[in-house]
Amino acid sequence: MNKKILSVATLVIGSISGISDVLAKPEFVIPAGATGCTNCHLDDFGFGFKAGVLDAFKGGLPGLKAFLHPTPIKSGDSKPILHPINTYWDVTVGGTPLVLPLLVSDAEDDMFTVNISTPTNALPVKGAILSQERTDIASNLPAIDFKWRPTVAQANQTYTVNFTAQEKGTGRTLLSNTVTATINVWPARKTATKNVNQFKIQRAQWSNNTLTLAGAVIFKNGLTTAQRAAALKALYLNMRTNSGLVVGTASHLTVDASGNWKKTVPFKAATVPCTVKLEYEGLNATSPVKLAPKTCLQ
User: Fold this and answer.
1) Is the pTM for the entire model greater than 0.70?
2) Phi, psi of 98 (to 5 degrees)
3) Which of 37, 72, 171, 193 is surrounded by the most beta carbons within 10 Å?
4) Same domain, 152 and 88
């Protein structure tokens, strides 16, 4: 194969050993259990990928192995299902740790483990841990939490993490679907007022020249009624594009008893942001705008 054509198996070896440019020789496919180029590619020259290879690679080496050597599904055995989570998350250095609940369904109630991997060339989520298995109260499903408290050195970066659930136990090796999360890490807060622990945006969608935003405010424990009222009085929505351009005008947010908020803002196609960044009390939240027009502002 040509030096510049990397097979999926080569990418696996590169990610493990730090090699970024290697010859795709047969010996590099051994860790993935491949027998040749056409296990993953459309021909012996390394051009194109077979359907499913790139999705399998999101699960790292275990996902690729499962693709190359699928385990025959036995009677009474089905793949675990890793339930969807929000695609975009925000966490502030020195603030409340990020916790992503990973819920798993399995028809046979098999035991499972959760695998974490990062795409090729993505930043590693150093310091992240997985909790012990627990039962999610709302769904009554088994769950494992991904927990991360980023450091100062990890601020102002975006991280991508892939999750898969895999059966464990005798004769149980099936791998679930892949769930991906994109995490924005913000620098530590510098503002004096810190009545809010988390400021979330859960929805951003543009339609009929209107941008609809929705999210939640999580207040600091132990606030007095006066402190809570003061925080709400000063709760203004400041919007920027992904490049930092201010869009729209600051507007006051009204929060319900559960801390949820919703806001509709008029935006013409030429001025709507592709990604909206919100800020309050030094906390940041980011979300891509669904249905944004091609003319959206970067």
Assistant:
1) no
2) -80, 130
3) 37
4) yes
